[in-house]
Every structure is written in C-alpha cells, then in structure tokens.
Fold this sequence. Notes:
Elements: H1 2-32, E1 39-43, E2 47-52, E3 57-62, E4 69-74, E5 78-83, E6 86-91, E7 98-101, E8 108-114, E9 117-122, E10 125-130, E11 135-140
Antiparallel strand pairs: 1-2, 2-3, 4-5, 5-6, 6-7, 8-9, 9-10, 10-11
Amino acid sequence: MFAEAVSRVVARALSQVLLSLLLAAPVAAAAEGVVAKTIFLVDEDDRIVAANTATGQFFSLTLHAKEKILQRHVANGVAVLVTNQRFAGVGSYPSGWSSLRRIADEQVVSTEVVDKSALLVTSDRILTFNGESGSWAETRR
Length: 141
C-alpha cells in the first residue's frame, strides 16, 4: 500500500514536470527570435565609438568640423546618429559606420529604431538603415 502511494506521487510529479517542459518549449522558441543587445555607443571628445559585442569589434566615427550630434538612437542591433551634417548608422554587420549627407535645410520629421533596423522620415526623404547589411536606402518624398 505504501509502495502504491509512492508510485502515484512519483507518477504525478513526473507528469507535472513533463507538462511544464512541453509548455516551456514554445516560450523558448519565441525567445530565439529576440535580438540581443550587441551595439553600444561611447562618447569621446571628437568621435563616437561603437562597440559591437557580437563580433568584439570597435568602430570610430570621427565628427567633422562644427558637426554636432542632434539625435542618437540605439536599439539592440543598430545605432543611428543624426547630426547637423549627416545621418550615420552602425549595426551588427561588422563593417563599421555608414553615413549619408543631409540635404540643405532638410528637417527630421520622425525616427524609429528597432532591433536591427531604422526608419528616418525627413522633410525631403524616407530613409532606412539595415543593421545586418550596414546599408542605407532612400526615396524622395
């Protein structure tokens, strides 16, 4: 009788463990799609250093004369800077900074940076930055 009771308790415990493992599997699969934080920015006097923890590399963006950073956006796998002279982005792709010159009197309307991509809407253009390829794309408004 004691052996049967122990057997039932063990069986119930095993079934609960198996059920919890089955329920945890979809959560673990969903977590695989989460982009890890890999890009960090460090301010220096005349430059910004991007640290890519995925590759162990460091990339410097030297600011031009009279260039000022107006906005900075950092997501998990991408960072974008808006300066008074250009738009600069760096991502998880180990190529370093990539930048586009601003058009005269171009105003930034909105900026969104998520995971490994960025979208900038200006008075003249719609810009995207792909942090996996390190490339900009643009179209006129």
